[in-house]
Amino acid sequence: MASSLFLGAAFLVFAVRRCLTYLHIFQQEEYDGPRFFRWMAAARAFDKRATLPLLACWGAALAAPGHAAYAAWAAGLVLLSVAAVEDNPLRAAKKKLVLTARVKRILSVALALTAAYAVALALCPAAPAALLPFWIMGVQALPLALVAANASLAPVEARIQQGFWNEAHQKLLRLAPTVIAVTGSYGKTSVKHILAHVLGCYHPTLMTPGSINTPMGISRIIREKLTDAHRFFIAEMGAYGIGSIERLCRLAPPDFAIITNVGPAHYERFKDLATVVRAKFELAHATVARGGRVVLPAALLEYDHARDFASANAGAVLLCTGTDGNAPAAPDGANGADGADGAAPSVRVLEAGQDLSGIHARLLYQGQEYEVRAPIHGMHHVDNVALAFAAACGVGVEPQRVVSALRSLPQIAHRLEVKPQPDGSVLIDDAYNSNPSGFASALDLLDLYRRAGRRGVLVTPGMVELGTLHDSAHADLGARAAACADVLLAVAPARIPTLVAAFRAAAGPDQLVVECADFAAARAWLAANIGPGDAVLLENDLPDLYEKKVRV
């Protein structure tokens, strides 16, 4: 009995630590059970660290029945040992587990289910060693306990969330700030950051922080942060499928909208770009239905849905031609740069570049040229600045005041954030979830440092959510990286074989490829090899959290 009770107690200690690990991912997957199980299958995130030693204990008990009593004690020690080395997602992750009230409810119910199972096994009159397979089943069933707990709480959560939603919605309607909503396959957080800075220089402005873009996240910001002093409220809106943005627009009805772009950043969710366009343009339709205006990159007009929308709502559309300069012609009636309907986009990037102090561009707006400079890096941010410029002018800020505000724009955290290091090296932190366009822009910045005399080091595990484009996109960027980096640190190289192969094929004899099993190995290499003459680009460390780096 003593060994059974010890094993039961050890199992509960293990369950607490392991449930936090799984909850970390469950939270990232928006508490969606099927998505969470798909992640588990893709990441092969079934327990091995505890299960294999427990199987060994069971095997030893079967092989030596005379000593089987020791197997339960050994199994308990195994579980305590694994619990002791389990990563703590409350402290050890870049995007930490947030112990919201909902997380606490799910954890409490899951642990109650787990405790009932453990008590039943611990009090079972069968020999403890004979019950080891059932303890192993309990270890493997912990993710199921979380999903079951969440499902059992669904009616409670629905009532709570509806209450939060109603409170936030009514508060927004009562205070009536100008609501500006931003969406897109990528760039939406950066555009939000740029626009909030520009508007905040002249008017009280609140934005949803970081990458908060879900109904409950937006509701929380409105409920806790919005005041009657705020003239503008800028909300990032994310899409997890058709209807996602439409629901967000019912929560925070937009007076003004920006769609940054459409691309393969979430190909796995939407399968094709036409579906992405329809999902993103839910924001545009909701905005014009309220008499609002929409800022669009002119490049989006290559998509039928976008072109039809712009033609039908030309008077409400502000078009931006960015650095590609190859956008389709504006539809008849779209606001023109020279004031003539259909003549040209509202904002046109005439010329752009970057140096080590930041980006600069010459913009044409309503027939007037403006010299814009911002102390952020990455040529893709020129397009983001142009979109923010158009939006700020669209809500009434004088263009020259926008230019002035951009000169003091702070760097955007983890998005090509340049960080000089104490040892004289430079870290280019582009750690947030990457996409092909942003990755290419980051490589261009690394090449700028190389041409200034520094050794360029690229650290990357590649990109996520590209679906069928995964291999081809990584092959293209691998070849490009060989022209911009002296050293490639490929993190988890098995998931990006085409990038590694393309880099090797295009690299010269003095260029180096270092394959790192994980970020710990990459950090160890950097600590031993980086010095004052180096520039290190960290391009996307999200897979360390999001894909296959949960150690189970």
Which keywords apply here?
552 residues; alpha/beta
What does this protein structure show overall?
It contains 21 helices and 15 strands. The chain is of the alpha/beta class and 552 residues long. It has a nine-stranded mixed beta sheet, sandwiched between helices. Strands 10-11-15-12-13-14 form a six-stranded mixed beta sheet. α18 links the parallel β12 and β13 (487-491). α3 (51-63) runs antiparallel to α6, α9 (188-200) packs across α16 and α11 (244-251) runs parallel beside α13. It is globular. It starts with a helix and ends in a 6-residue tail after the last helix.
Short structural description:
By secondary structure, this protein is α/β, with parallel strands linked by helices.
Distance between the termini: 29 Å
Low-pLDDT stretches are 327-333, 336-344, 543-549
Q: Strands across the major sheet, in which order?
A: 2-3-1-4-5-6-7-8-9
Structural class, judged by helices and strands?
alpha/beta
Binned, the helix content reads 40-55%
Fold blueprint:
Layout: H1 2-28, H2 33-43, H3 51-63, H4 69-85, H5 101-122, H6 132-140, H7 142-152, H8 154-175, E1 178-183, H9 188-200, E2 205-207, H10 215-225, E3 232-236, H11 244-251, E4 256-259, H12 267-270, H13 273-289, E5 293-297, H14 304-312, E6 317-321, E7 347-355, E8 358-365, E9 368-374, H15 380-394, H16 399-406, E10 417-420, E11 426-430, H17 436-451, E12 455-460, H18 470-482, E13 487-491, H19 497-506, E14 512-516, H20 519-529, E15 534-539, H21 543-546
Parallel strand pairs: 1-3, 1-4, 2-3, 4-5, 5-6, 6-7, 11-15, 12-13, 12-15, 13-14
Antiparallel strand pairs: 7-8, 8-9, 10-11
